[in-house]
Amino acid sequence: MNHTVGARQAQKQQSRRALLDAGLRLLADQNFASLGVREVTRAAGLSPAAFYRHFPDLAALGVALVEESLASLHVMIRSVLAGEGGAEELIDRAVDVIEQHVREHQPHVRFLARERHGGVRRVREAIDAELGRFAEEVGAALGLQPVSEGWSEDDLRMLAELYVDHMVSTAAAFLEAQETDPAREAHIAATARLQLRLISLGRRHWQGS
Amino acid sequence: MNHTVGARQAQKQQSRRALLDAGLRLLADQNFASLGVREVTRAAGLSPAAFYRHFPDLAALGVALVEESLASLHVMIRSVLAGEGGAEELIDRAVDVIEQHVREHQPHVRFLARERHGGVRRVREAIDAELGRFAEEVGAALGLQPVSEGWSEDDLRMLAELYVDHMVSTAAAFLEAQETDPAREAHIAATARLQLRLISLGRRHWQGS
DNA sequence: AAGTTCGGCAAACACTTGTTTACTGAATGA
DNA sequence: TCATTCAGTAAACAAGTGTTTGCCGAACTT
After folding, report:
1. Which residue in A38, A57, A80, B33 is deepest, having the highest Cβ count within 10 Å?
2. Tens of pLDDT along A188-209?
3. CA distance B10 to chain A (A)
């Protein structure tokens, strides 16, 4: 939608990108609340004042990062639910996709994990709202599966939230493993698969609430 | 063990407590990494230099808080597993106890939720290690239940981790609800109960991995 | 070609920060 | 009673902070 070009806009976008990237890079080993304007601009190669040409606040930069991070999440969920196959195939694919996603978007995922319960309210709420919409999307997709015949709206939502929470926990575990003990990754994946199988077993025997 | 008295020691312990309390209070709306020595001592009514009579580091204070927080968690788990009753009663009691625990130890729980993936490695690792031991305790308790006949060690551990992760997610949800929309608490409790019922259903039909 | 817009800069504002220093004075022990 | 211990203090250190100011000069518009 925003294919305004012109050397002016282009360079502005470039600086904005530099700020976002610098922020994300710094967030590798500190949390958002302890980030500083000067720190970010220094890492981006800009002057402190330049920051305010792009964001009114540091929190605004945080919200922008949330949007970026979750856009990639929505892409991910679709690639899981899109394919064919039974429960087993779906579980395997889901865990694979999560693992790969964490590897490829490590900074974004870490940002989400860290700030989900972090100290900056606006960022926290943005994440929670988006994870809610995420659960809704999962719930709708679950409703289309044959296994869900006879399930109420509420029960579907409950199940979707269970899946989303499990996904978040798994992603966080992958993250921690990748930066401290990569050998654990396979074990985490195996555990996650078993847990999903157990949940899907409970789902098949569910009689409604 | 430490019933050393003497007016001297007593007052020192009192100051230490003041520092811990002040820290915990400040952590209500910021994360640990952005905490400052001056900030804590100011809130505790001491001079900045006094801090170093008690802790070498701010991280040391953080680790002390982790220990406090998790002691109360272990007490909690025992009070859940101690009682009698079938799966349904156990689920109801578990959710009740979590809800009550979050209410009574809000600052500690928030601290754990926030710093579990927070920016200070030493604190993060202390929490993760303790949650691991926690899962172990749950796994052992699960193994004693009749439903677990024929379950392997690994499968029990997998199930225990699922329960612990679920407990953490639920606690975090209660926390968020309590400070933004207390009316949601009942709904969260109901959802958590349903999810636990679904898991326990899967558990009854589990054939082993 | 002349005029306007505006992203970026250096400098200055009034703070806050962690940590060390030399000190005070009450509790302790001989 | 007198000497020692030691939790707590005020003051100073150099270095960091967010935000505003006036200005420059390249990119745009007319």
Report:
1. B33
2. 999 999 999 999 999 999 998 8
3. 34
Q: What is the mean pLDDT of residues B40-62?
A: 97
Instruction: Pick the closest to residue B62 from B113, B112, B106, B104 (CA basis).
Output: B112
* CB pairs A-B closer than 8 Å: 108
Question: How many alpha carbons fall within 13 Å on the CB side of residue A200?
Answer: 17
Structure confidence at residue A80 (pLDDT): 87
Comparing B1-55 with B57-204, is the CATH topology the same? no
Measure CA to C1' and name the residue nearest D9. B47
Question: Closest approach of chain A CAs to the CA of B3, in angstroms?
Answer: 37
CATH class of B1-55: mainly alpha
Domain ranges within chain A, ordered by starting residue: 1-55, 57-204
Cα B61 to Cα B33: distance, rounded to the nearest angstrom = 12
Are the C-beta atoms of residues A100 and A9 closer than 8 Å to each other?
no
Residues of B in contact with A168 (CB under 8 A): 169
Q: Which CATH number fits domain B57-204: 1.10.357.10, 3.40.50.2020, 3.30.565.10, 1.10.20.10?
A: 1.10.357.10
CA closest to D11 C1', residue? B49
Q: Do B195 and A162 touch (CB under 8 A)?
A: yes
